[in-house]
Amino acid sequence: MSVELFILAGFLGSGKTTLLLDLLNSDSRGETGVIVNEAGEIGVDGVVVKDGADDIPLTLLSNGCVCCSLRSGIVLTVSAMLDAPRPPGARPLRRIVLETSGLSRPGPIVASLSDPELARRGIRVTVISTYDCVRGALNVDEFDEAAAQLGAAQRVVLTKLDLVDPGTEQLHAEVIRGVNPLAQIVADRDRGAAIRQAFAESGPAGATDSAVEGLFGSAVAKAHPRIHVMAGTLSAGASWDDVAMWLDDLSSICGDKLLRVKAIFKVIDCPEPIHIQSVGTTFGAPRRLMGREAHEDICVVIARDIDAEEIQAALPQAPVVLSRSSHSAVAQRSSKVFA
């Protein structure tokens, strides 16, 4: 059985722990495991789980959920949680939530989760970021970290909606789309509904489908002067080796300024379209989209403080040509990807 692993990112005070507690309190079946960062703690049912042991202590909550602190590496911690005996009659864990510290960048965490041991266990990774509607997420001193968290997220949850005027959700959504037009935005004022959307199962093809569906429509985006959303066009006759070399070059030129890459390319040496994605410079294994015929390639690159012109100047012979793109322009192209 596949297990959903949610990386929960967000700045201190952005409502991240409240969101996690809402999930735990709503899980009557006890199917959730929680890993808290060594710099954090979480209290639920009168129990505080925090750093304080050299092994991996597992705390069983009254509803059957499990909490532990991240001590010995993410792979060992996740494996220990999944292998731990369950109480009589308890269901297996269906999801694990890793609550990161406020300044954590998701990229290195995603990289560590590519371990073959976790792949064998059927772990499916989703990055969730909280967005504080009172403070905002990009008006902070740690802008680089905030941009990395929002740029990496597959889902962005608007928090503290009860403290802002009704109707302001759209304004915050425009800001988020200006940073990450690929993300699903959870803006439900009903906390139960927000929890269900935020921690929904991704499904076997969820990552691929959401990569395309997240770009449909012509939703308004508010551009940020330091965030660049670029569209890429693949040259005719390009092979997979050409694309792979370009991805390496792109990572080298951008470094930690690269926030996200999503692409679906048709290359000459593969009969099916290939789905590519990255969080920062950490790329997942490319996936062949079996049984699907792409009518047009799509490529979205999101970066901080480096634009399409700079990248093209550094890679004049690249098989992928990048250009500045608005969210709506990317959406118009992506709507033709699958017929």
Give a verbal description of the structure.
By secondary structure, the chain is of the alpha/beta class. A hairpin with a 2-residue loop joins strand 13 and strand 14. The chain folds into 2 domains: 202 residues, Rossmann fold (3-Layer(aba) Sandwich); 108 residues, CobW-like, C-terminal domain (Hypothetical Protein Yjia, Chain: A,domain 2, 2-Layer Sandwich), CATH 3.30.1220. Helices cover 29% and strands 25% of the residues. The C terminus is likely disordered. The longest helix has 15 residues.
Can you tell me the CATH superfamily of the largest domain?
P-loop containing nucleotide triphosphate hydrolases
Strand order of the largest sheet: 5-6-2-7-1-8-9-10
CATH architecture descriptor of the largest domain: 3-Layer(aba) Sandwich
Structural class category: alpha/beta
Q: How is the CATH topology of the largest domain named?
A: Rossmann fold
Question: Distance between termini?
Answer: 31 Å
Please state the CA-atom Rg, rounded to the nearest Å.
20 Å
In this structure, how is the largest beta sheet organized?
8 strands, mixed
Mean pLDDT score, rounded? 81
Helix content: 25-40%
Count of DSSP strands:
17
- What is the domain total for the residues? 2
Contiguous low-pLDDT stretches (5 residues minimum) are 45-56, 205-212, 214-218, 328-339
How large a portion of the residues is in β-strands, by DSSP E? 25-35%
